[in-house]
Amino acid sequence: MDEILNNPYLPPLIASILIILLFPLIAGYIVLLERKVLADLQVRLGPMRVGPYGFLQPLADAVKLLLKEDIIPAASDKWIFWGAPVLSTFTALTAFSVLPLSDKFYVADVNIGFLLVLAMSSIGILGLIFGGWSSNSKYSLLGSLRSAAQMVSYEVPLGFAAVTGLMVAGTLSMQGIVEAQRDQGIWFMFSNYGLMLVPAVLFMIAGVAETNRAPFDLPEAESELVAGFHTEYSGFRFALYFLAEYASIFVMCALWVTLFSGGWLRPFPNVAFLEIPLNYGFPALFFGVIGLGCLKGLRRRMPIEQLVIIGALAGAMFLVALLFVIPLVNPYIIGLFWFMLKVFLLVYVFIWFRGTFPRFRYDQLMRVGWIYLIPISMGALIVNGVVLLATS
Amino acid sequence: MAEATFLDTNELVLNMGPQHPSTHGVLRVILKLDGEKVLGTECVIGYLHRGVEKIAENRTYTMFNPYVDRMDYVAAVSNGLGYCLAAEKLGGIEVPERAQVVRVILTELNRISSHLLWLGTHALDIGAITPVFYCFREREEVLKIFEKYCGARLTTHAFRIGGLQYETYDTFEQDCLKFCDWFLPKVDEYEELLTTNRIWVARTKGVGILNIEDCKHYGVSGPVIRAAGLEWDLRKAQPYSGYEGYEFDIPTGQAGDTYDRYIVRMQEMRQSVRIIRQGVEKLPSGPIKGKVAKVFKPPIGEVYQSIEAPKGELGYFMVSDGSTQPYRLRVRPPSFVNLCALDRMCRGSLVADVVAIIGTIDIVLGEVDR
Question: What is the pTM of this model?
Fold first, then answer.
């Protein structure tokens, strides 16, 4: 028994199992968040039917997608058609293995962590290209051609912006990056006299493009290419693509948070007197308010099962709020709280983009990438390097 | 033909529609592509053909009146107005003043609702998913006024030959004025969201240019020709239904591109509000229907009556053989004529522009196919 418990592979195993089990759920709830936020922007309600205020909608969606007929077009290249979404999902989930969810909770801390994530997101493009190509449909083909061109050109500024951040951090290990920010006492976004803001913004723009989100959602441009590369996909295979898309959004936001805004660090990580209000007060207040919000959603004539769900949710929120004020438990979960909070704020911004901007055209997208983003990111790299050298 | 080799490039023929998210119904466009570049387009229409003109020959003038609502179903009131005007011209019927003013008010409301639908779907085609919901919110208010007036929201059948069927309801004037006050800030809101939006400007400026010569060549009318710079509005050029008594401007553009057409339509909504306000102000009392025989039987002859529908010149050519049914009815639909210029506008642009251009022409397939 002791042998098992002391096995160095046990914590990563547990962490990875937890991630694989939980992530589809998180992705489902990111979708719900997106639908609700978009609905809010668009003066409508969004999903309201399944569960109280549509809370169980992701589960219903998942069940629907799983039970759908599995269609493989007769003219498609079956093996590649079969494998492409798997490849996309596999790479997106693999990237999770190095994400520093907190100082205690992560699968692995390898010394090339950042590189691994970038590599995985590059390979993930192949899933889109294969999927579009093997469908043997013109819309899919156009979609995958677009995604190939787009991702290749946006990976360059993404890489340059990342290199700038890594240069300041001095390490490729994801935990190391966060620790470097703790040691320097500043989020990298604001270091170098604020010059790092440029690569931070560039990284975010390129990240939006890299994850195929609006206004760069050309590969699946609904109004032009019907659904782009996944036009021919349905049912579970479509769900896999969907999962991969939201997983890569999460990964991209997590990368940004890790590199530029301190990962699992709280704001002002070196100001000691802020520890109590920020690490204890804020999360407790945060979850407490959410719990109260749940209670406020109660309506008199609600079906009993909805009352139970809302009540349970509110109870859980109060419980979590309580957990954060226990000094014994707090250090274990506070990192996860800050990390998730920042990531979801960024996810919210992604959704906000989608609700606001029209879509770029293919040639404009290329122009933005090659004429603006790449030179600016190179310039930012050089300037930051010089400043770093001069100050060190 | 040369033998295809591994590195040969071929034209890609892409079939867009009839089931496609942004062909506004059942339009089918066959695109010839070189990569993303459009080499040529070919429209296939007729998926919504109902033979409206033939139906007219087998119905009496009165019976056919509701059918015209089903052509341009987002601007049913305008269609009805054109038809009634043509029939009245044929029968030599005087329409009382009050009926004329109510007609103008309702038609302008309809122009707003049609333009709102255009704006929402056009923005959706270009990838802005939010404006469509705002547009529908405002359009709802127009439809509510229609519903209160005649019971129907979309295919209203609001007018009858000789005037109106119904007297306006009690708070009609207040409702219209309230709508006008409430609506103008909303237009500013849309403009805030789109007009200066860099992506929107990049997607619409210089896209689908159609200059005045081309417009005349194709017989294009409505906002499309006004965006090219020609001040051509039938409400001013050949006033009908008392339009000569209203003060309003004809917004025009210069470049004749998608952006100008967008600006022109936005301005037109504001002008419509102006007309509605004047109409409500001058709404006289009196009868709402002229002298029409129980059985409408126009004398032998033919007329052509056209009006400025939201989408352009909507004309009715009516031939009477002295019976209760038209001998021949020909409709000049603005959507169809404007759609003819699609190929001219699309050539050399990209796939993404095609949907923008289809959106900017503002077609309704019910009217294209009839």
Answer: 0.84
